[in-house]
């Protein structure tokens, strides 16, 4: 499976935007600097993937999961990323859940006449489930980080 | 596969991740021993890459002088890659630039050194 070289690069426009947002207003970014950072980002993905994969293999799994990526950050000494990543993960899970509930709700609405249901009650129960799952995830993380 | 985390959604809210998940996935899959990647891992890797770009950009910008600079140059980035421990893994792909004349001089000196060494070893054996 051969990839063309450009496929392993990230889009210039997005990279430039991320850099600009990180630096003070009005700072000029040379084309070479942007290209260097873009290449560095691709190398970072490879390095992180390889590292995360080691954790997956240790856990005898073939599929890379979120905790593998978090463990990789720790290993690569990018601890500063871990908290924002965990927050992003929670936000992503909430979003996915919201989408799932929305499509299930649509299905229900099609099947029966619209009732005035209480959405809050069910959400409360779901939050408990989510907390349990997050706890489990954290336990799994600890298990995997142990060598 | 949905690039669900890219760009702005209908409400115009900021999305979790700006980098295209499909491209991140291609890079990840190019790694030899990787079989499959769960969607959460993909999203987190993309997010981590964004954090990394920001970290590298600000570290390179601050590198050296504490003064506010007007531009970020290649040499700022290369210096950071060479000198900061966290960015050591980039050292090979981001070499510092030197004048060609200087490089040729270094090559010449290195060859002379190696010649001296091998002559010494011959004399001893």
TrEMBL record, chain A:
GO CC aspect terms: ATAC complex; CHRAC; epsilon DNA polymerase complex
One GO MF term attached to the UniProt entry: protein heterodimerization activity
SUPFAM superfamilies noted in UniProt: Histone-fold
Coiled coil: none
Main localization (coarse): nucleus
Residue segments, region Disordered: 93-147
Domain Transcription factor CBF/NF-Y/archaeal histone: 9-73
Pfam families: CBFD_NFYB_HMF
Superkingdom of the source species: Eukaryota
UniProt KW keywords: Acetylation, Coiled coil, DNA-binding, Nucleus, Phosphoprotein
Acidic residues bias (residue ranges): 126-147
GO biological process: DNA damage response; heterochromatin formation; leading strand elongation; negative regulation of transcription by RNA polymerase II; nucleosome assembly; regulation of DNA replication
Function, in words: Accessory component of the DNA polymerase epsilon complex. Participates in DNA repair and in chromosomal DNA replication. Forms a complex with CHRAC1 and binds naked DNA, which is then incorporated into chromatin, aided by the nucleosome-remodeling activity of ISWI/SNF2H and ACF1. Does not enhance nucleosome sliding activity of the ACF-5 ISWI chromatin remodeling complex.
Known partners and oligomeric status: Component of the DNA polymerase epsilon complex consisting of four subunits: the catalytic subunit POLE and the accessory subunits POLE2, POLE3 and POLE4. Interaction with POLE4 is a prerequisite for further binding with POLE and POLE2. Heterodimer with CHRAC1; binds to DNA. Component of the CHRAC ISWI chromatin remodeling complex at least composed of SMARCA5/SNF2H, BAZ1A/ACF1, CHRAC1 and POLE3; the complex preferentially binds DNA through the CHRAC1-POLE3 heterodimer and possesses ATP-dependent nucleosome-remodeling activity.
Protein name, per record: DNA polymerase epsilon subunit 3
Gene name per UniProt: Pole3
From TrEMBL, chain B:
Assembly and interaction partners: Heterodimer with POLE3; binds to DNA. Component of the CHRAC ISWI chromatin remodeling complex at least composed of SMARCA5/SNF2H, BAZ1A/ACF1, CHRAC1 and POLE3; the complex preferentially binds DNA through the CHRAC1-POLE3 heterodimer and possesses ATP-dependent nucleosome-remodeling activity. Within the complex, the heterodimer with POLE3 interacts with SMARCA5/SNF2H; the interaction is direct and enhances nucleosome sliding activity by the SMARCA5/SNF2H and BAZ1A/ACF1 interaction. Within the complex, the heterodimer with POLE3 interacts with BAZ1A/ACF1; the interactions are direct.
One annotated Gene Ontology cellular component of this protein: CHRAC
Alphabetized Pfam families for the sequence: CBFD_NFYB_HMF
Recorded GO MF terms: DNA binding; DNA-directed DNA polymerase activity; protein heterodimerization activity
Localization per record: Nucleus
Domain of life of the native organism: Eukaryota
Domain spans labelled Transcription factor CBF/NF-Y/archaeal histone: 18-78
Protein name listed in UniProt: Chromatin accessibility complex protein 1
UniProt function note: Forms a complex with DNA polymerase epsilon subunit POLE3 and binds naked DNA, which is then incorporated into chromatin, aided by the nucleosome remodeling activity of ISWI/SNF2H and ACF1. Does not enhance nucleosome sliding activity of the ACF-5 ISWI chromatin remodeling complex.
Alphabetical list of CDD domains matching this protein: HFD_CHRAC1-like (cd22924)
Name of the encoding gene: Chrac1
Keyword Cytoplasm: no
Keyword vocabulary terms for this entry: Acetylation, Coiled coil, DNA-binding, DNA-directed DNA polymerase, Nucleotidyltransferase, Nucleus, Phosphoprotein, Transferase
């Amino acid at each position: 499976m051969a990839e063309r070289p450009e496929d392993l690069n990230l889009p210039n426009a997005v990279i430039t935007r991320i850099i600009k947002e990180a630096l003070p207003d009005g700072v000029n970014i040379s084309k070479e600097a942007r290209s260097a950072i873009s290449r560095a980002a691709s190398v970072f993905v490879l390095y992180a993937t390889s590292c995360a994969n080691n954790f997956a293999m240790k856990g005898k799994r073939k599929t890379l999961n979120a905790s593998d990526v978090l463990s990789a950050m720790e290993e690569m000494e990018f601890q500063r990323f871990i908290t924002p990543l965990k927050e992003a993960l929670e936000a992503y899970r909430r979003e996915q859940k919201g989408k799932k509930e929305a499509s299930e709700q649509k299905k229900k609405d099609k099947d029966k006449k619209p009732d005035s249901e209480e959405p809050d009650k069910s959400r409360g129960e779901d939050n408990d489930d989510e907390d349990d799952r997050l706890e489990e995830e954290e336990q799994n993380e600890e298990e995997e980080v142990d060598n | 596969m949905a690039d669900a985390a890219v760009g702005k959604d209908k409400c115009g809210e900021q999305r979790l991740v700006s980098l295209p998940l499909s491209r991140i996935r291609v890079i990840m899959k190019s790694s030899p021993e990787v079989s499959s990647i769960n969607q959460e891992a993909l999203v987190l890797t993309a997010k981590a890459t964004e954090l990394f770009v920001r970290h590298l950009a600000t570290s390179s910008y601050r590198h050296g002088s504490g003064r506010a600079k007007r531009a970020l140059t290649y040499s700022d980035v290369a210096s950071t890659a060479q000198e900061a421990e966290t960015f050591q893994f980039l050292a090979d792909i981001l070499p510092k630039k030197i004048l060609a004349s200087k490089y040729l001089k270094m090559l010449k000196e290195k060859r002379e050194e190696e010649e001296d060494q091998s002559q010494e070893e011959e004399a001893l054996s």
